[in-house]
């Protein structure tokens, strides 16, 4: 039987000092514990994996800690060695009750919980009820808990946690102290992962950790789960290439190559890059997300150059593209990438959706560059049909000789409108 413990559980914080990225919540709770200004109900909100359950367990330990000598009181620094602290860490403390509202959402479940809350704690100083995903409770269950939530016994504390506070009734919100846990920043995630890997003596490249932080999207638990996967996938050496392959992420060189071909109006080169991605079984949905991210950084380089770190692996290519593309182009391509990703599920397949997004960027390209026609996919000799003469770009000499008022900043010639014909009044027939 394996004794391996996943990183997300092994490195779960057991005191307020080791919590990362939630200083505003930690400061408020530690001061309240130090001054013993304790509310009876708390609401923790935030996305998955940011520490709602972890903080509730640490708070329960702080309320029930007896100290190493057994004579301790409420403290902001639980000892971690007394019976209460060890039992809460192990999930077997009888006076700390965690309830999942997703599977216990009925009024009967809530009534049974409230009836038990009327009894004094069995071994602890406080009886702490932690209700996770509280927004899943039914409306009748919320109504049943209102009175007890407002005036519980002095030995009862309620901790509610939710990822969707908009669904919690205002009558419940008004009875709780609300703390919004923030998403972890990529830099904060990378720093914490570096600390863990240094302690675990596992080599890693910063580029790989940066990709893991990007994939975690603000969740430290997700980052640790991805790190576990990356360690197994890479054989104990977390590199940028291995993480990129594991997540199906497109390399920065490929994305930069697509944008460089777009600037040159080179459709075959763009499709060649897409074919390479298909051959490597990369995710086109992730590619469009990464492409939008690259366009965002290019826009920042054009307007606020200092906002993009020169340490980024794709900084040189993005800086060159920022000079080659106009701000209007960047904004247009960014919107097309976003819409292309949203429409990917409606496309015949992901390859078609991705390549149509690239061709749409070419079709709406605001510059006057000529676009080379795409050769047949089957390698035949048939040439793509040329554009009708009426759609062709006007010659430079024609633009020079045109009157000043008729010159338009566009590469497409506008055909003159036919003269308007008079329409007879209603009820009259035309003559002849």
From TrEMBL:
Keyword ATP-binding assigned: yes
This protein's UniProt keywords: ATP-binding, DNA replication, DNA-directed DNA polymerase, Metal-binding, Nucleotide-binding, Nucleotidyltransferase, Transferase, Zinc
EC number: 2.7.7.7
Domain AAA+ ATPase residue range list: 38-185
Reactions the enzyme catalyzes: DNA(n) + a 2'-deoxyribonucleoside 5'-triphosphate = DNA(n+1) + diphosphate
InterPro entries: AAA+_ATPase, DNA_pol3_clamp-load_cplx_C, DNA_pol_III_gamma-3, DNA_pol_III_sug/sutau_N, DNA_Rep/Repair_Clamp_Loader, HLD_clamp_pol_III_gamma_tau, P-loop_NTPase
Listed transmembrane segments: none
Molecular functions (GO terms): DNA-directed DNA polymerase activity
Quaternary structure (record): DNA polymerase III contains a core (composed of alpha, epsilon and theta chains) that associates with a tau subunit. This core dimerizes to form the POLIII' complex. PolIII' associates with the gamma complex (composed of gamma, delta, delta', psi and chi chains) and with the beta chain to form the complete DNA polymerase III complex.
Protein family membership: Belongs to the DnaX/STICHEL family.
Function comment: DNA polymerase III is a complex, multichain enzyme responsible for most of the replicative synthesis in bacteria. This DNA polymerase also exhibits 3' to 5' exonuclease activity.
Record's protein name: DNA polymerase III subunit gamma/tau
Lineage: Bacteria, Pseudomonadati, Pseudomonadota, Betaproteobacteria, Burkholderiales
């Amino acid at each position: 039987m394996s004794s391996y413990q996943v990183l997300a559980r092994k490195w779960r914080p057991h005191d307020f000092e080791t919590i990362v990225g939630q200083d505003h919540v930690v400061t408020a709770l530690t001061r309240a514990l130090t001054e013993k200004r304790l509310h009876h109900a708390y609401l923790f909100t935030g996305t998955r994996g940011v520490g709602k359950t972890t903080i509730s367990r640490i708070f329960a330990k702080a309320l029930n800690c007896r100290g190493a000598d057994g004579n301790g009181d409420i403290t902001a620094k639980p000892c971690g060695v007394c019976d209460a602290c060890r039992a809460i860490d192990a999930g077997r403390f009888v006076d700390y009750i965690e309830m999942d509202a997703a599977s216990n959402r009925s009024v009967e479940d809530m009534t049974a919980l409230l009836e038990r809350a009327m009894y004094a704690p069995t071994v602890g100083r406080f009886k702490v009820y932690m209700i996770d995903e509280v927004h899943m409770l039914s409306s009748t269950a919320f109504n049943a808990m209102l009175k007890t939530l407002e005036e519980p016994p002095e030995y009862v504390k309620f901790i509610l946690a939710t990822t969707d506070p908009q669904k919690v009734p205002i009558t419940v919100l008004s009875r709780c102290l609300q703390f919004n846990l923030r998403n972890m920043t990529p830099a904060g995630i990378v720093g914490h992962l570096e600390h863990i890997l240094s302690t675990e003596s596992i080599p890693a490249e910063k580029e790989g950790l940066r990709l893991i932080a990007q994939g975690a999207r603000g969740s430290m638990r997700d980052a640790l789960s991805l790190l576990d996967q990356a360690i197994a996938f890479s054989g104990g050496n977390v590199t940028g290439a291995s993480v990129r392959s594991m997540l199906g992420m497109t390399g920065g060189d490929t994305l930069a190559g697509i944008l460089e071909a777009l600037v040159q109006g080179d459709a075959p080169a763009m499709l060649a890059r897409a074919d390479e991605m298909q051959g490597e079984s990369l995710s086109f949905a992730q590619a469009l997300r990464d492409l939008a991210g690259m366009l965002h950084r290019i826009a920042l380089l054009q307007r606020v150059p200092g906002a993009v770190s020169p340490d980024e692996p794709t900084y040189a290519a993005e800086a060159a593209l920022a000079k080659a593309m106009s701000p209007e182009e960047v904004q247009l391509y960014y919107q097309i990438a976003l819409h292309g990703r949203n429409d990917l599920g409606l496309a015949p397949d992901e390859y078609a959706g991705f390549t149509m997004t690239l061709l749409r960027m070419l079709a709406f390209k605001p510059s006057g560059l000529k676009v080379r026609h795409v050769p047949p996919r089957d390698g035949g000799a048939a040439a793509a049909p040329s554009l009708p003469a009426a759609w062709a770009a006007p010659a430079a000499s024609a633009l020079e000789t045109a009157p000043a008022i008729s010159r338009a900043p566009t590469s497409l010639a506008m055909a003159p409108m036919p003269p308007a014909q008079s329409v007879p009044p209603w009820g009259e027939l035309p003559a002849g």
